[in-house]
Write a structure and sequence with these properties.
By secondary structure, the chain is an all-alpha fold. The protein has a domain of 33 residues. The protein has 3 helices and no strands. α1 packs across α2. The chain is extended and about 60 Å long.
């Protein structure tokens, strides 16, 4: 399954410089890097074995009907 259209804030200046040095677009650079991470199975090596479940706080959801105790 392919994951498409993910919006992630990235350091634009760094990516632009790296892409320019290689003569490709920023989008292509990010695509190539992510393909390398997936193909070489580098996620565990990059992130380690840490628990990332609390990396981003869960979204606050509006609850129209709450239990009134």
């Amino acid at each position: 399954m392919a994951i498409k259209n993910i919006v992630v804030p990235l350091e634009v200046e760094y990516l632009q410089k790296a892409a320019k040095e290689r003569g490709i677009s920023r989008s292509k650079l990010v695509r190539v890097v992510m393909e390398k991470v997936v193909n070489d199975e580098l996620v565990a090596e990059i992130l380690g074995e840490s628990d990332l479940s609390n990396f981003e706080p869960p979204l606050q959801r509006y609850r129209r009907f709450r239990d009134r105790a």
